[in-house]
Amino acid sequence: GVPKLPRVNPGTMLSIPSLTQLLHEEKQAQYAAMTKEQLWTVEDKYDVPIGDCFPGCVFRLQAPIRGLVVLSWSVGRGRAEFERTSLREASWLLPAISKQPGAFYLPRSGGFFGKDDADYFDVLGDFPLLHFKGGVDFDFAKKICDEFVLSAKTQN
To answer: How far apart (Å, rounded) are the C-alpha atoms in residues 90 and 129?
Structure first.
């Protein structure tokens, strides 16, 4: 993909102390006064400079891909569920992962950002895909993703 800073919403920023520094005091107070339900409706997104917010943490800039995660859950839809599939088997999930690279990254002829969806299926189609649906439950998703990562490590 195109390297970009991760984007988070205000609820995430309020729940992680290292990220609150990205918000002006007025915005912190505005968001902190909102209920959890109100925060879910806020469409503000903020870029997170990882190195500034988490100094001393080591992270990889490049790693082999082991799978994909798609979150198509939403607030108020009951219990969170997941299915393990692949992009090829669940092709209707492609819009959740196919993003335009932006004005500064023009498509390469014949490259990954080609003219049709076939490029995504050629590159990512057979990787395991964890699809979360139903209600929002980050603890549940973390548990499933942790199990997936551990099983992927033991297979190598």
So the answer is: 9
Q: What is the mean pLDDT of each run of 10 residues along the chain (156 residues)?
A: 78 92 92 92 90 83 86 91 96 85 58 65 93 94 94 74
The runs of H, that is alpha helices, within 56-137 are 94-97, 118-124
* 0.85 exceeded by pTM: no
Single-letter amino acid code for the residue at 141: A
CA distance 82 to 96: 15
| Residue 111 CA: distances (Å) to CA of 34, 99, 105, 116 | 45, 15, 12, 11
Helices within the chain (DSSP H only)? 10-15, 17-20, 25-32, 36-41, 50-53, 94-97, 118-124, 138-154
Tokens of 75: 């607030």
Query: Do residues 80 and 137 lie in contact, with contact meaning Cβ atoms separated by under 8 Å?
Result: yes
Per-residue pLDDT at 68: 93
